[in-house]
Model the fold of this input.
Amino acid sequence: MFTVNHLRKTYLDKNGTATDVLKDVNCTINKGDVISIIGPSGTGKSTFLRALNMLEPPTAGEILFEGKDITAKGYPLPALRRKVGMVFQHFNLFPHLSVIENVIFAPVKLLGMDEDSARKEARSLLKKVGLADKVNAMPGTLSGGQQQRVAIARCLAMKPEVLLMDEPTSALDPSNVGEVLSVMRQLATEKMTMLIVTHQLKFARDVSTRIFFMNEGVIYEQGSPDEIFNHPVHSATKNFVLGVKKLIFDIPDDDFDFLDMYSKMRAFCTKYSMQEKISKVLHVAEEMAQVALAKYRPLRVVISFTEMTGELAVAFMIKGMDTSPLQDDDIDELSMAVVRGMSREVIEETTSLGFRVKVLI
Amino acid sequence: MKLRKLHGLLVLLALCACGGPEKTALVIENEDDISGLRVTTLAGTLYDIDFSKRNDIEKVFFKTTADCVEAVTRGMADVMVTDDDIFTNAELQHLGLKIACLGSLELPTAFGFKKGNQELVESFNAFLSAIQEDGSLEAMREFWQNSDGVEFDDIPRIPQASDGAPLRVGSGLLTAPTSYIVNDEWVGFEVELVRRFAYSIGRPVEFQYMEISSMILALQTDEVDVMMGSLTITEDRKASIDFGNPYIIKHPAFFVKDYTVHSSGSSWLSRFGDRFKRNFIQEKRWKYITDGLLATLEISLLSILLGSLLGVLLCLMSFSKRRWMRDFVSLYQLLMRGLPMLVLLLFMFYVVFSGTSLNATMVAVVAFSINFASGAGATFRSAVQSIPRGQTEAGLALGFSRFSTFWNIVFPQALRKGLPAFKGNCIALVKGTSIVGYIAVRDLTRASDIIRSRTFDAFLPLVAISIIYLILAWLIGALLDRAVKTK
Done:
């Protein structure tokens, strides 16, 4: 359906500096695909999606739809967009029209449907998304989840061949997310071709036929949900799907501001609701960085939290070393006893960069 | 307690009824006696020029005789100086004025012509000496001086030439018995004189009222051929216009308030009834108001229509990708914001459209339209900008073209958003049209001027047109609300 070759999008900011949001995107989208596009923010997921209906014309590359390049000058974009529906993060319903008027607006004006049959169809679409009783409401009186479901019905009224969904649940209250996801799930079971930019990893894993993991302006890794979530090839993919959050500190020498590091660690724990582990984290960090490993400088300290498993760890990395510093004769035994007492496990391992001591808390 | 309050009120009422201590009229015996007094006269006349040199008097100058009379009768000025022949005796009585004394100056009075229009001046002079010799000039004077109570139908009708270029006459005066309007017809001593002259040279005649100051300009730009209105020949004026031979020698007169004539004991209500009759019923004066209302409506509605279309164009241009178009809009709006509406109107009338056949009402429509477009354009632009970008994106994504997205989705929403500001633009325009009198369009405001010039009553005509303007403003707001609701 879509074939994308070497797509690039460059933004110029006010100072004239160019930023490549999309560097080189290549992919093929087939009929019946349900593709979730995941990845960290700012990596061009939305830009890529919006390029597919030319709301965001790319700087270079081509997008073939039914064999024709839609980025070419003179390509009839309105005709393309009638076949390619789009659902927005902020719904973008027409606030001056009622729910049903929103749904019939485009079919009547663009497809030349007569109003009666358009209304009939709109009613059945609204029933499908669970809003049969809101037919005559104004959009402003609806909750975010309801508005988004109207927006989906508005798209479906044009009988699109493919649906582009740009973070459809990101602007919603957590309590409203479920109702929208269930409508999307239903569409997926009906074999609607969809591309969904989403942060709902569980939804992406359950519903998609394929996953695009986007990072740094390219499709970093793609595959089936099983491949991406259970056997990712790249560590960036793995970190993302596991939801690994980290904070890195480099200690060059003893003039380093340790207090600042501790307060940042404290904030990190608070952010991921790990308040009860703050004192353990700080004790481990202090005993290791300032006592047990005091002679190893520079030292890298990484605190990490994995959302999927709930694992909190503090790792200490000594560059260019291949034996464990814990095996040294003069290691401070008292300190190490404190650390082992505070932790679930201490892992000693060599890596390509040097030796790492990882303390699981 | 209550009783004492009532008592106090009664005393107050009694005082009002008595009207305080008796006052007597000022005594003025010659020009020197006005020293230290507040003196009022018509701006732009010989007296204005003369008194401007005197530092021993307080000057209160107005643009119409009605305003000067009002100033004296309401006590804003002590004495009014103007020509001795402008009021009939009955009128003086009615106004509560009297002549304290006549000045010694001799004031030759004549018609003004465009400088160098020798042919017209000579034919007028020949006409004048003929009627002076056969005594008909004197008879005319006699008639008009005693014209009080003369029925409209008894006013002599001068035949009018049916073809030929019309002789366009500007009058700087709307005062009986010299030059005034009755039943929508120009009458008076000077009017008859000029009608007779026009007939003698075989040309029809057209009158319009203008302020003296703008009339000299009108003469120079060929808007009018003859200028009248009790014009005194002065050296200053001779520099810019030519005069015919004088047809009358006038003297200045000093008018003061006459306390001996007082409203008789009739009730407040019946006095009000009299005033109402005098201002609106007599001589069908209400017709000035209805005609003026039509003119105001015509100018306002046409200007709103044309100006809005032009405003939409400006709004579209301001969103253009072409830089010169956006610059043009900025410059246009800068110009329109900075230029006083009156200046723009006069510029259009005397410069841009002078010498064209476009009538004054249409010139006003053009001037107000291009001014209105600037404000309306800015209103439309900010209304369109207030519609979120997502609305356009939603329209485009559904498959609407760029134009039809704007027209079907953005525009209807912008209309609602911009309505309050647009209503403000429209109402400001309607009120703004009250200056069209400057280019001799008889609108609502000018209608009240004309009535005032005959009845010398400022209050009622002004109240009447105020109410009409208020209703107009409300009506336009209501109509716009309705139009948008049905859209």
About this structure: The two ends of chain A are 49 Å apart (CA to CA). The mean pLDDT of chain A is 92. Chain A touches chain B through 25 residues (CB under 8 Å). The longest strand of chain A covers residues 18-29.
